[in-house]
């Protein structure tokens, strides 16, 4: 039976390997002293010609080696980013979260604009729709159902990151005009909360009532601008890519176009819609941009098509 390696031998071997790695990487011995355990420091002192001096800086893991191998613990203190130390001045090792892509500055009072809007998502085809919009350098506004946000939170985050605008379309698509105040408050409030959470902090700007139906007396209780539409593509009814292209591409400057990203036929139509509208010199923008960034609570934007009472 082989004799077990002594603790002193193990420490000496580890120290020698570590000292060599430090020399190759160019990391100072002070960093090693700050991160290694006391036994390993003492062993290294016997195998390294350099004196070990304590460092007040937080250590950076060696390239290609996990930080935990040297006792590295990411900082989670307030005001500091996870990932801890700076390898050198002005360069952080922390992974940065992707920032939302800002919408290009477009003045719709001076150029032709149309707002494409999509209801009832997110859904199985939303990711593909985002790819089409980004490929065409187009922005849009998405009116989300709370129950769908719960099912596809990652898509809401993707929409916000892509610079799309988020809107509230109620929790599960009831006709709000038939509901009591407490229920309307719940439908709108719950949806706003899950949108903000899923998106990473981006809030819904507009409320689009399902069917465009909200009593005049109810508008005052909803502390959001209200979004209707000017062009109803009827994509939910026709389920025809060709018909959706024809309807949406006929939009005039200033129009709000209504579509639904839960239908594959609609998503297939988007590249041609974008192409045809841009060929007319029309900018495809969010609803807020279409309105010049000046929207007010309780006010309806767009003509809408309300159900008969």
Automatic annotation (TrEMBL):
Keyword Ribosomal protein listed? The answer is no
Q: Which Pfam families match?
A: Polysacc_deac_1
The record's annotation in InterPro entries points to: Glyco_hydro/deAcase_b/a-brl, NODB_dom, Polysacc_deacetylase_ArnD, TAT_signal
Q: Name one GO cellular component term.
A: membrane
Q: Report the record's Gene Ontology biological process terms.
A: carbohydrate metabolic process
Q: Which UniProt keywords apply?
A: Hydrolase, Metal-binding, Signal
Query: What Gene3D superfamilies does UniProt report for this protein, alphabetically?
Result: Glycoside hydrolase/deacetylase (3.20.20.370)
Molecular function terms from GO: hydrolase activity, acting on carbon-nitrogen (but not peptide) bonds; metal ion binding
Please state the span of the N-terminal signal peptide per the UniProt entry. 1-23
The residues covered by the NodB homology domain are: 112-285
Where are the residues of the annotated region Disordered? 77-103
Low complexity bias: start-end ranges: 77-96
Q: What is this protein called?
A: Hydrolase
Which species does the entry assign this protein to?
Answer: Galactobacter caseinivorans
């Amino acid at each position: 039976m082989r004799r077990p390696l002594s603790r002193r031998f193990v420490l000496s071997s580890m120290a020698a390997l570590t000292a060599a790695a430090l020399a190759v990487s160019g990391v100072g011995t002070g960093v090693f002293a700050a991160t290694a355990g006391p036994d390993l420091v003492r062993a290294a002192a016997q195998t390294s010609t350099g004196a070990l001096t304590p460092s007040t800086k937080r250590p950076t893991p060696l390239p290609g080696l996990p930080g935990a191998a040297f006792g590295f613990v990411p900082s989670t203190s307030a005001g500091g980013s996870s990932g801890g130390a700076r390898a050198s001045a002005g360069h952080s090792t922390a992974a940065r979260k992707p920032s939302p892509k800002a919408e290009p500055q477009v003045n719709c009072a001076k150029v032709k604009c149309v707002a494409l809007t999509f209801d009832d998502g997110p859904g199985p085809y939303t990711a593909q729709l985002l790819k089409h919009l980004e490929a065409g350098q187009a922005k849009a506004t998405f009116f989300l159902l709370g129950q769908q946000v719960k099912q596809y939170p990652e898509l809401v985050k993707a929409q916000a990151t892509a610079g799309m605008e988020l809107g509230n379309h109620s929790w599960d698509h009831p006709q709000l005009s038939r509901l009591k105040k407490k229920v309307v408050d719940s439908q709108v409030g719950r949806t706003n909360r899950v949108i903000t959470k899923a998106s990473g902090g981006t809030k819904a700007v507009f409320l689009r009532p399902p069917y465009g139906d909200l009593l005049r007396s109810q508008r005052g209780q909803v502390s959001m601008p209200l979004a209707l539409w000017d062009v109803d593509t009827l994509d939910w009814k026709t389920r025809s890519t060709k018909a959706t292209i024809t309807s949406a591409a006929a939009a005039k400057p200033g129009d709000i176009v209504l579509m639904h990203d839960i239908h594959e036929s609609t998503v297939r139509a988007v590249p041609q819609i974008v192409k045809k509208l841009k060929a007319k010199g029309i900018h495809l923008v969010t609803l807020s941009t279409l309105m010049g960034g000046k929207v007010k609570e309780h006010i309806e934007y767009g003509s809408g098509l309300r159900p008969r009472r």
